[in-house]
Sequence to fold (1217 residues):
Amino acid sequence: MGYQKKSYKKFVATAATATLVASAIVPVASASFSDVEETHEFATYINTAVEAGYIKGYADGTFGINDNLKRSQVVIIIGRYLEKLGYTSVATTSPWSDVKDAEVIKYGNIVKDAGVFTGYADGTLNGGGFITRENMAIVLDRLAKTVKGTSFADVAKEIDDVKINDLETANADYRDAIQALRDLGISTADNFNPKGNLKRGQFAKFIMNAVEKIDEIAQEAPAFAVESVKALNETAIEVTFGKDVTVTNEELKDVTITLKAGETTLTATYTASSLSDGKAVFNLAEGEKLVDATVYTLASEKLGFAVETLTAKTANAYAATFATDTTAITASLEEELKNNNTERVFKVTAKDQYGEAFTLGSADLSVEGSTINGMPLSSSEITIENDGTVKITRTLVEGDKLAVVVTNKDGNKVLGTSTIEFTVGKAAIAVPTKVAGVKATVNGAVPTTVVAGDVVTLTPDVRDQNNTVIPADVRYVVTAGKELLDTTGDLTSTTTSVDKAASGAVTFTAVKPGTVTIDVYNVKNGAKYTYTVEVGAKKLESITSPASVNGYNNEVLKTTKLTANEGAAFTADMIKFHITDANGNATSDVTVVAKVAEEASTSPSLEKGDIYLEVKTTKAGNYNVTPYVGESFTSAEVVKGQTMTITTELNPIATTIDTITVGDVKVGTPVTKEIVVRNKHNEDITKSVVDAGKVKFEVFKDGAKVNEADYFETLEVKQNATTKKYEVKYTAKEAGEVTVRVFVEGSVAAQSIAVKAEKTELASINLGQDIYDGVVSGDGAFYQIITAKDNKGDVILPANATNWTVTAKAGQAELSAAGGSVVYVKKNENGQWTEATATDAEAVALKVDTKTATDIHALTADKTVTYTVSTTVGNETVTDSINVKVKAQRKAHKVSVTPSSLNLGLGGTTTVKVNVVDQYGKAFAAQPTVTDNQAFNFGAVTESKKGNEVIVGQYEFTATAKDTGAQTIEVGLDGTAIKATVNVNVAPASELVQSIVISGEGVKEGKATVQLKHNTSNAIDLNVIGKDLNNAEVSVNQSEVIWTSSDESVATIAQDGKVTTKEITDGKDKEVTFTADLFGKKYEVKFTVSAKASQLATGTLAIANPSTVDGDKDVEGVQIVLGANNADANVGPIVTDGEIVITFTGVDQYGDVFAPAVISNSLNASIATAVATGDTVKITAVKAGETTVRVTVGAEEILIPVKVTQEAVDAAKGTTY
Fold:
């Protein structure tokens, strides 16, 4: 991110100030200084400053509240404040010549680098001297400028001055700062006493008030950060913005840069449209030019410069000055004179006209004009090579005066010259005395940084006693970082010492980041040079994720190691995670933490130091975890690992069963109580243990185990169809007391239930309140619950209720076919009563069937029927009656239309929907008809559908306008007076339509949603919708629309809206805009035409016809169940051969249905295998259990839970039953 845009308000309201201090100075716990009373006016400020860590007291427990403040103390206090804000200094030496104290040096470098406290012009601080109040004012003013980019004096310009009586006694340069402190409330004194010494207590108040006010100042920062500036030529400069800066041509319009050098001021203005790849060109004003090698200071209101100076380099660099490291030239030796070998060699180095090192090699060098004792040397006596090697070939005597003139020429033009002088020293044999340095190169060049994988070549620089380069035997020894080296080159992880003759070079390669230290010795005398390099990490390019993991919910799962490309910087704290559920939605149900292995392990396989992941889910399921390094998962620079699948299930080991209390029960009457089985995490695992058949019962009487069938007709666990909870169902067979122990097989989970059963007789039945609404002739069965009670007044489920007698009357007339009977019932999953067996029953009910009973199945008028239910118990008759009003059979009653009124363009077509309801307001199937009207052409009336399902009672037809004016469309039911009308205002579209919008294939809300495939006829079909003054839709005659294409070489559009794309031969995407024009009203949509092959569009991978493969409709999503037939309607396909083939589908980037080539894998292939072929996956049973199959296409994936039964395993193996 670049600099924030400049704020034009000096202050901003803040919810909270910096964390360093409170937003207002409030009392804090006393720092307990013996000389600071809690009631003192400075106590609060002192204590707050101490709490913030800016100020400390003396060792004797005092603060020195009235002591004069020393200049060194100001440096430390301001430095601590800046340090807490993140300011640092790389300097380690003292910033002032008179400062030796380590703490003052540390904070002095910070405040001096920040420009807050500079010291005296002579380079001293005078730290023991006292600071005056006016000096303090200017320091605080600079502090605000440093921290927020604007000074207190600048801020106070917008505030009316508060009078300071003695302001004129202050140094003129300090008056604005003093006035600002008073105007802003940092100082409250009417007499400031500028020349007086500042007290420590006073400064506590000043610094805390200043810090609070600095927090309130809006940041005055330039808009855009500039990384570097360079001269392109005499009249133009190039600006390079920071890598995270986003800037546009429009934002740079008219932006200027001021360049100052001495009395010269130049202005450069942004060159329109020059911005490219984060660089922009600024041209100097007409007539202005940069002077080569001049240093300019940069300033701009909109730009912030990392380096605020520019050295104008407008000419080619050349060697301008010369020097040598050689300290002496020695006289010729007698032996050399005898052998006529008196050569002396040394090298010169160069700097260019900008004062920067210049590599010799191409310069045209000359030593013409060189002299010895004032006598010119001949070309045979002194020569120079282009690399700077100077050779003197003549007799030299101790005391000779040599003047070597080195010149760089361009033809006859002298570009640079220097004279190097020597006094010839005493004759001596040259011997290697020191290793002056080591030159490190990578691929022949000196690198700015060395990164892992670079092959580094080291060449020693050995010097003789005169500092002249001399070949020598050298020894290289790796003293640190050998574990970072690979096994190739001269120096390796195992070969850490090598000798080389004649200053020979060596190579090494570090494969890991870190510090490598190599000592280079002169073998002759042991002189040493230490070469140290910080090997940087390679760019992080790839992350290899651990394998997917399976385990139990709420338990920590460890993965195998997580790695990156070799040599890259990759630490656990860098790693972030993108986590989604099985549907691709972000979730907080998973926590993932990257950790470093403290020791080696085998499960998972890890070595000490490996990075691995600890994963924990709080909700069992399938999750996707993608490790990444970067600012965000979608940022351009992000590096992502492979997506891992985390699959967790509830730990299936039962530990407890919730308490079940039954109490007294009736023999023959079932009792149901919820059962909840839990694991060690207190998770409900009832379903898994029940499905596995692990819930068992034991019955005890008087402490002895007995046969449960002797005491219970039913004793089982079943799932309630409505609540989906699991229940223990008891039906006592005999009276008495027993204990039922329910337990989970193979676990410690158990619960004992005391059951006391008694045998009673039916005493009464109650059919409830009379029914006068809701029962309609011809509709079907209706159930009225019968409440049966025993002789103790308790509700029971009576035996043999289906044998009870039911009679019916209408008034005094007996009805023989009124459809009444007594049945057992239970609730289904929708909470509705359905018939059941006596064993499964939850209640008994009076069943009234209005569909088949001839007395009530086709009533034309309401009829009240009295139903009487009776049975005999001993010598007594138990009976009750209920009146049921059976309403007349349903018939069509009303027709409504949508819309009931509309505007329609002449020739336009609209669709009218018709709804038919009965006399009770329910949808009713009755085909409507449309009355002929010469003003329209009508389409056929058809049933409306939702998908493939017919919507009962809803119909639709089209109407195309042929004549203008106020028209009426009449819809009715043949043979009845039932009708409805649509009022239509038909007018030419040119009168009705105020605006238009394009719709059709691949368009949503007037915007293109798909790409168009090249070289395709009828690629899409577009149409136009009109809008009237109220923005209501107006159907228009599509033949009146004029269509145009912006580029018919890319795509054409026919006047019926059909688009044909042309062939793209260069492989590049093209853009085309289609414009619709309806009587001057226009709308356009831009499409991309692509030659790319079909690819799966994001978010469209799906199972084709999921209902045909879903094995458990009670669970959200598709579940595959490989098992035997099951009569439960919610269990899906019957898998008889132990395998199932699933077909996948999707939509491509062109909006067309697409058969993707999928990849699949089973997360536990020991349970089921998954083999992908084209757009299908075959899942085959291997072993009973549960697993998940992962199906992917690129970044798209679907996770499918798979349950395998033993029957499926046997079927897969060919076993039959």
